[in-house]
UniProtKB/TrEMBL annotation, chain A:
Family recorded in the similarity comment: Belongs to the SNAP family.
Gene Ontology biological-process annotations: intracellular protein transport; vesicle-mediated transport
A cellular component annotation (GO) from this entry: vacuolar membrane
This protein's name: Gamma-soluble NSF attachment protein
UniProt organism field: Miscanthus lutarioriparius
From TrEMBL, chain B:
PROSITE patterns for the chain: SYNTAXIN (PS00914), T_SNARE (PS50192)
Protein name as catalogued: t-SNARE coiled-coil homology domain-containing protein
Organism of derivation: Miscanthus lutarioriparius
Location(s), subcellular: Membrane
Summary of the function given for this chain in its UniProt record: Vesicle trafficking protein that functions in the secretory pathway.
Record keyword Coiled coil present: yes
Length: 295, 270
């Protein structure tokens, strides 16, 4: 039905089909949907983003009504992309959420998490909180489905966002989640890199105790114990214990660090931060306690 | 008569006639009470021995033998220079009974001339420079491996090895080349680590894609089966449609319609 290429006419026609009135008891969603789709494409071609977005919304609704959630989700995503261009950030978030729900209805968790990830990256600049939430949701969707391998990139992106927001413990937590996901998939290299990144983040945040604890936890994992990253971590922590800034700088330049994420490398280059002496004193205090304590 | 017997007899005869050995008596008399003269005589003998060894070394073809001879020469030289020479100098100054002042002066002169004589004994270090140059050029690896690897670096006994400039230079060169090799190996090590990282990333990516490929394989197989099924049914339908009976019926009906049309035409024309 390429009769009227005027999208406005198509829209009004489709609206008439869907509006319930005295003469019309059942809305004809099928034809209405196809009209809406055509109108939306025409608007997009004309770069009329506002109207195109509305048209896509309505088309998606129509698809829902004729129970094809897959197409509905696809239209929602297009609407969300247009909303991003227009700058309606809350609409962006809503649309992507809705799209992901529809994908989950179809039983396809991967496109669902993809939609959430797209939303999160769109919102990174404007509202990082919202973006973090979306990343979190995307990761949990994949975790539930057991497809963590696809989630590695999401974890890394979320952690990078946390680092930008300077929420270091959250970032480290995300890296540990990455580590456990990698463990399930037997991706040893990623796992070790994730653990090393977590330790570095803790050290950057002056939290030596946490770094130590983290290191001890990670050493339980056999795969980490035998890896290069473990050796690097040991050297780093012992350099910290001795309070040797030169050594720390030297270790940060070593090659094991060059394969980590960019944000983490930047943090590592800035080590050591804070007062090494304070860390050393705290550590010595603990050690003397241990020596006296014979239990 | 066995050799042993001959030897014992010769010894006995020599002992009997020793008192008639003029040279020995003279030598013993001359050196008898005078420690300086004795020491000087022994030093002289050593120097002559060294010179002889140097001569043999020059003729010698076997490198190892040459090296051994040179080492011995050096050892003797060092001993002479360090121990005997100072003693001689002290003894030369001492006044001895029965010696004139001129003789004492002569002795000092003799002692002064000794160091030069000792140093001038060729001990293979000067001739070795040419060889060292060649060895250095061909790469320190072979030189280093042959010369220095077995002995711990720098633990050279002074008696056995006197460091001349050439050998020190050689050592310095060796150290530099080793440092350069270490640097090169470091670079290679870093490159290898990058490769390892890339390879394990590729490994993980492929692992990620294996289940996707399996899924795709399944889906495509299903689609294939569906298509085949559909094709077969379509073929059947078409065959049915084209079956001759239907065809004949079509033709008959067509003729009937044409007949009716012709009849109507005739009726209307009239």
């Amino acid at each position: 039905m390429a009769s009227s290429s005027d999208p406005d006419k198509l829209m009004s026609k489709a609206d008439k089909l869907t509006k319930l009135s005295f003469t019309r008891w059942n809305a004809d969603w099928k034809s209405a949907t196809s009209l809406y789709e055509q109108a939306a494409i025409a608007y997009r071609f004309r770069k009329d983003n506002e109207k195109a977005k509305d048209a896509f919304e309505k088309a998606s609704k129509g698809q829902e009504m004729i129970s094809s959630p897959w197409d509905a989700a696809k239209h929602m995503e297009s609407a969300a992309a247009l909303a991003k261009e227009l700058g309606y950030w809350n609409e962006v978030s809503d649309f992507y959420h809705r799209a992901s729900e529809l994908y989950r209805e179809c039983g396809r968790p991967q496109p669902a998490s993809d939609a959430l990830a797209k939303g999160a990256s769109a919102l990174e600049e404007k509202s990082p909180e919202e973006a973090i939430k979306m990343y979190d949701e995307a990761c949990s969707v994949l975790e539930e489905d057991g497809k963590e391998q696809m989630a590695f990139d999401l974890y890394r992106a979320a952690a990078a966002l946390y680092i930008k927001m300077e929420k270091y413990s959250d970032a480290a937590a995300f890296f540990l989640r990455l580590g456990s996901a990698a463990d399930k998939c037997n991706a040893i290299n990623s796992q070790c890199k994730a653990y090393l990144s977590a330790i570095i983040i803790y050290l950057y945040a002056h939290d030596f105790q946490q770094a130590q604890k983290c290191y001890n936890d990670c050493s339980e994992v056999q795969a980490f114990l035998n890896s290069d990253q473990n050796r690097c971590a040991t050297k780093l922590l012992s350099a910290y214990e001795e309070g040797d800034a030169e050594e720390i700088k030297r270790i940060s330049q070593s090659s094991a660090f060059n394969h980590l994420d960019h944000m983490v490398i930047r943090l590592a280059r800035k080590l050591p931060t804070g007062d090494l002496q304070a860390i050393k004193k705290a550590d010595d205090g603990e050690e003397s306690l241990d020596e006296d304590d014979l239990t | 008569m066995t050799v042993i017997d001959i030897l014992t007899r010769v010894d006995a005869i020599c002992q009997k006639y020793d008192k008639y050995d003029v040279d020995k008596l003279n030598g013993a008399n001359v050196a008898g009470d005078d420690p300086f003269a004795r020491l000087y005589a022994s030093v002289d003998a050593d120097i002559n021995q060294c010179v002889e060894k140097a001569e043999t070394a020059k003729q010698e073809k076997n490198r190892a033998a040459v090296v051994a001879l040179n080492a011995e020469i050096r050892r003797t030289k060092a001993k002479l220079l360090e121990e005997d020479l100072p003693k001689l100098q002290r003894l030369a100054v001492k006044k001895v009974k029965g010696l004139t002042r001129e003789e004492i002066a002569t002795r000092s002169d003799l002692v002064a001339a000794l160091p030069d004589r000792i140093q001038s004994i060729p001990d293979g270090s000067s001739t070795a420079t040419k060889k060292n140059g060649i060895w250095g050029a061909s790469g320190s690896r072979t030189g280093g491996a042959i010369k220095f690897d077995s002995t711990a670096d720098g633990n050279f006994d002074d008696e056995y090895f006197k460091g001349t400039e050439e050998s020190n230079q050689f050592r310095g060169e060796y150290e530099m080349r080793r440092m350069k090799q270490d640097e090169g190996l470091d670079v290679i090590g870093e490159g290898l680590e990058t490769l390892k990282n890339m390879a394990s990333d590729m490994n993980e990516e492929l692992d990620r894609q294996v289940p996707l490929m399996d899924e795709m394989d399944d889906k495509v197989d299903r689609a294939n089966a569906d298509l085949k099924n559909t094709n077969v049914r379509l073929k059947e339908t078409i065959l049915q449609l084209r079956s001759s009976r239907n065809f004949c019926i079509d033709i008959i009906l067509l003729c009937v319609i044409l007949g009716i049309a012709a009849y109507l035409y005739n009726v209307l024309k009239k």
